[in-house]
Design brief:
Layout (H helix, E strand, L loop, with lengths): L1 H22 L6 E3 L5 H21 L6 E5 L13 H11 L4 E5 L2 E5 L5
Parallel strand pairs: 1-2
Antiparallel strand pairs: 2-4, 3-4
Helix pairs in contact: 2-3
Amino acid sequence: RELNSHIKASQKQSQMELFLLANKDNPNTKLDLHYLHTADAIKQLQQFISQRESMARTSSSGLKSVEVVTGKGTRSENGKSRLRPAVQNWLEQKNYSYTEVNCGCFRVVIKSDK
């Protein structure tokens, strides 16, 4: 059990490092959720959207939308994305307006007034 916990923690750390690397050169209006499991991706999405909403409220940045990359799911089991429908469901539950940029990316309208 202890070894299994250690392996899972190590895998999670590796995934987070890959996620951070994937986003390192992105503009601050784009979040790439590749490499994350669904629960971790939703946490990162919540944090990202919340930060961008704060920026939109406190500055005159003109920030209106962000891009959220989920990927197509081609490397997922059965070639079906789990991440994309989970992100879409979260956006709908939180009443965010969004459009599909392509089958692996959403453009989400930022709420600047709460």
